[in-house]
Design brief:
This protein is an alpha+beta fold. It is built from eight helices and 20 strands. α1 crosses α8, α3 crosses α7 and α6 packs antiparallel against α8.
């Protein structure tokens, strides 16, 4: 294992921060996997999973069982980790710009296409190598063309350079209170489904373009975009399996759960040829995927005390009572109803909320939304 540190531009005189990552295995020996935790810096379950993965990967490397390379970023957002307001971590948004740390990653598709289109041929493997080289060249050019002089832009660029040419990209997050669930691209679901089964995911939300360029999609969408631009003239493999893994809720930070999640991730890396050896478990069947556009939030129309009437994981029918929103002064109660048939899989962890707060998410089977599909 090698620990490597990338210096970020100073945000103020006399201060510096850096991004650290761990490298296991040998470059160009075999498939490459990239795993990062806590891109939203206050989402901590992934950080503990990364802690367990560090120990497991160290042992596998010593045993000669790494068939490729693994990059592990245990804390992917040093900028957000430093943000604390009145004793509370503020890791979702950059306090300087207001930007979500998991948005506005680099859309490389057009630039990569321009670089590779004259060279593509009928050999899918050769095309894959050309595209990967073009991805690296495109990211190298960003520093020259759009100097990443501010800390947040430099952090985004550094993460993309580590991940964008990988075969497997796993971005570890969590929700407020939730069941384990995944976000991934519709075109790669069949190859991601074993990961959903190994992790015991209750919901898998699929899209081809969710809007606002989140990290996982910035890495994997290049491949189906280029396949579409090639229009069947050249074979373009979907060579990056990028997944956002929502590791339950904020408070689900314990060794037993993290150890199980780390073992499941290693099993998936075995399936992808990154790690040698037998699986620790048979691969369970995956949950039935649903479209991200069918995931419908329930928002608070006014301020109030929140009482949930259904538990996470319950199937609900459209129109069924889901939440009581109570005005403690007037005593009035608004009953908020399930918006669609589906699984109630995530909810807000605060029990007194402001108007507009998204309180619960229900994963429905039918795509009902359009435009940007992610939340702030």
């Amino acid at each position: 294992m090698e620990q490597i540190t990338i210096a970020l531009p100073s945000p103020a005189a006399g201060t510096t921060r850096s991004l650290s990552y761990l490298h296991f295995g040998q470059p160009d020996l075999g498939p490459k996997a990239y795993i990062q935790a806590s891109l939203h810096a206050d989402e901590l379950p992934g950080m503990l999973v990364a802690h367990h993965l560090r120990a497991l990967l160290t042992g596998l490397e010593q045993q000669g069982k790494l068939l490729g390379e693994v990059i592990l970023v245990p804390a992917a957002n040093p900028v957000g980790l430093a943000q604390t307001l009145l004793g509370t971590s503020q890791g979702r948004f950059d306090l300087r710009t207001g930007q979500n740390f998991n948005r506005m990653f680099h859309d490389l598709s057009d630039d990569v296409w321009q670089r590779v289109q004259p060279q593509l041929g009928q050999d899918a493997q050769a095309n894959q190598q050309l595209i990967r080289a073009a991805i690296r060249a495109s990211l190298a050019g960003i520093q020259r063309d759009q100097a990443a002089s501010d800390e947040l832009s430099a952090q985004r660029l550094a993460l993309m350079r580590l991940a964008a040419d990988a075969d497997v990209v796993l971005d570890l997050h969590c929700d407020c209170e939730s069941l384990l669930h995944l976000y991934t691209g519709t075109p790669i679901w069949e190859r991601v489904a074993p990961l959903a089964g190994l992790l015991g995911a209750s919901v898998a939300l699929l899209e081809t373009e969710s809007g606002d360029d989140p990290f996982d999609e910035a890495c994997s969408r290049i491949w189906w975009d280029i396949a579409a631009l090639a229009d069947g003239k050249f074979p373009i493999p979907l060579a990056c399996l990028a997944v956002t893994i929502e590791l339950r809720g904020f408070s689900d930070v314990n060794h037993a759960t993290a150890a199980r999640d780390a073992a499941a991730i290693l099993d998936y890396l075995r399936l992808q040829g990154v790690v040698a050896g037998p699986l620790s478990q048979a691969v369970p069947a995956a949950c039935e995927p649903t479209p991200l556009a069918g995931c419908i939030p329930v928002a608070a129309p006014s301020a109030g005390l929140v009482v949930y009437l259904r538990e996470l994981g319950e199937s609900v029918r459209a129109g069924e009572p889901l939440i009581d929103l109570i005005d403690p002064v007037s005593g009035s109660v608004q009953q908020l109803l399930a918006p669609v048939d589906g699984c109630c899989f995530a909810r807000e962890n605060r029990r007194y909320v402001a108007p507009g707060t998204r309180l619960s998410k229900v994963a429905g089977k039918h795509a009902l939304r359009s435009g940007p599909l992610l939340w702030a």
